[in-house]
Design goal:
The chain has 231 residues and is α+β, with helices and mostly antiparallel strands. Helix content is 18%, strand content 33%. Helix 1 crosses helix 2 (190-198).
């Protein structure tokens, strides 16, 4: 008999530890672990250039699929799925790193509407920082991408005094990686440049919010199938 899904708001443990993203060229995977225990991965990230879902995030301990990211050839608004719930990272600007998404893990209450989160970014010659802000515009997490790293490509830090639940950590990992790779592609892809020119940036409209809420729901058995044999 399977166990019930844990509430995103249940503060059973603190998952605020900083994570590191280690990419292995031999297997074309990333292993995400705590910096305090790098030998014990928490997440495994698979990549695909031929499937619609090109970023696949699974639990390292159970091999269950946690979420996925979908990057588009022209559109600058990537989609994601987290524990069976569909979402979109909506661009707020054509040229700046400024995105928004609807969050159930950071919502004020379990049964209430999702919270509106915002992602901003700043880059220099060496790194690219992606910062996630809550509805009060307070930073809750940061992903630091290292442009020149061959293996330790990124770090995920949780900011502020908020106690991060496992569901909230899952959300930051899935949405943060999806946004990170979306922006990397945007810097090198001509079709993405065209997509930015014709894009209609701005907040997620109420109609789209309602549609996403209707699509949202508890993860199904199909969404929690094994991600496949881990090499």
């Amino acid at each position: 008999m399977g166990t019930a899904m844990q509430s995103p708001h249940q503060p059973d443990a603190n998952h605020n530890e900083t994570l590191q993203v280690d990419f292995t060229w031999a297997k074309m995977k990333s292993y995400i672990s705590s910096v305090s225990d790098p030998s014990k991965p928490l997440y495994i990230v698979d990549y695909s250039s031929i499937k619609k879902e090109c970023i696949l995030v699974s639990s390292a301990s159970t091999s269950l699929r946690i979420g996925s990211g979908v990057l588009h050839i022209f559109s600058i608004n990537p989609n994601f799925k987290l524990h069976g719930r569909k979402g979109v990272l909506k661009a707020l600007s054509r040229w700046k790193t400024s995105y928004t998404h609807q969050s159930y893990a950071f919502a004020a209450s379990q049964d209430g509407p999702p919270a509106t989160m915002t992602w901003t970014g700043h880059s220099d010659f060496k790194t690219w920082d992606f910062v996630c802000l809550d509805e009060r515009q307070m930073p809750v997490a940061k992903i630091k991408l290292n442009w020149w790293a061959l293996h330790k490509v990124a770090r995920i830090e949780f900011l502020g005094d908020r106690v991060i639940s496992e569901a909230a950590r899952d959300e930051i990992v899935v949405t943060g990686l999806t946004l990170m790779y979306c922006m990397v592609i945007r810097t090198i892809s001509l079709p993405s440049l065209v997509g930015a020119v014709v894009a209609r940036p701005g907040p997620i409209k109420d109609g789209s919010k309602q549609q996403l809420q209707q699509q949202a729901g508890p993860a199904t058995s199909k969404d929690q199938t094994l991600a496949g044999k881990q090499d």
